[in-house]
Every structure is written in structure tokens, then in C-alpha cells.
Design goal:
Helices cover 25% and strands 34% of the residues. The protein has 159 residues and is an alpha+beta fold. The protein has a domain of 106 residues: Immunoglobulin-like, CATH 2.60.40. The strands form 3 sheets. A 4-stranded antiparallel sheet has the order 5-4-7-8, with no helix packed on it. The chain has a 3-stranded mixed sheet with strand order 6-3-9. The N and C termini lie far apart (110 Å).
């Protein structure tokens, strides 16, 4: 067995039983529990964007990605301008550039407080409603007239 020897003394056996850490039994568990509670209760901001269409059921594209049929709710991380396209059969498609500005509590240095320190969750829920205009059928006579005009233009031979 190894040990530590001081001048004119007998060796003291070294084992984990006689090493004192200065921490009482059970304290480490309490510290870990407190840290876990803090991590669970710290603040955060949940950002959601809901896109509705009138009439409902339009296909929604957000920044070029099909996100489903309206009404649809999607989470988002960053503020800024988003491209929203809504399409529905027998309706004109609508394309919008929607600015989504950051609220005051999400601007530096307040954002650190709301994201990390504040012991509650903040929900930033934005709603966009897109009105869809029905397509109006073009009368047959108008279509035939336009076709005749285009045919005459195509027959003209450039000189």
C-alpha cells in the first residue's frame, strides 16, 4: 500500500475514505438539481407565423417552401422580410413580401434578458391574412378576337 511519509512519522495510508473534499454528502446532487431547474425555467421567445387565406384552403409557400394549406402556423427564428405566396384553384395567386420586424424586447441588449434570464416564455405570434381574388372567365368571343389578332401579327414577315 502506498502512503505519504512526513519526517519521523509512520506512513499514512492513502485511500478515498480519508480524503476530505469539503463538500457534504448530497450537496452535489442538490447543486445539479438547482442547475436543472434553472435551465428549465429560464426565459425564451417562441416565434410563430400564421398565414390564413380568404377563402381558406389555399396552398401556402413561405420563402419558396411549401408549408401546407391555409390556415397554417409555422415557427420562425429570424426577423426580416419573408416572401409569402398563396395559390388556390380558380383564384389568382398572390405574392407578398411581408416585413416582420423585431419587437423592442428582441433588440440588443434587451434580447439577452428575454432569451436567457427572464424566467418565463414569451410568445411572439404574427398573423397574415391573404385575400384571394376569384378568376373571372374570359368570354369566348374575346378569346377568339385576341387569337385572330395574334395570328395576323405572326403572319407579318419582317423586311
Amino acid at each position: 500500500m502506498s502512503g505519504v511519509t512526513f519526517a519521523h512519522e509512520e506512513p499514512i495510508p492513502v485511500s478515498t475514505a480519508n480524503i476530505q473534499t469539503g463538500v457534504r454528502p448530497g450537496t452535489a446532487g442538490a447543486v445539479l438539481f438547482a442547475a436543472a431547474v434553472l435551465l428549465v425555467t429560464v426565459g425564451c421567445v417562441e416565434r410563430k407565423l400564421t398565414i390564413k387565406s380568404d377563402p381558406t384552403g389555399g396552398t401556402v409557400w413561405l420563402d419558396g417552401v411549401d408549408v401546407g394549406e391555409a390556415p397554417v402556423t409555422v415557427p420562425f427564428t429570424y426577423y426580416g422580410t419573408r416572401e409569402v405566396v398563396v395559390e388556390k384553384e380558380l383564384h389568382r395567386p398572390v405574392r407578398l413580401l411581408v416585413p416582420i420586424g423585431a419587437p423592442a424586447y428582441q433588440i440588443f441588449p434587451l434580447d439577452f434578458f428575454t432569451e436567457v434570464i427572464l424566467p418565463t416564455k414569451i410568445v411572439d405570434h404574427r398573423i397574415i391574412t391573404v385575400g384571394l381574388e376569384p378568376l373571372t372567365p374570359t368570354p369566348k368571343a374575346e378569346v377568339l378576337q385576341r387569337a385572330a389578332e395574334l395570328k395576323k401579327e405572326a403572319e407579318k414577315v419582317p423586311e
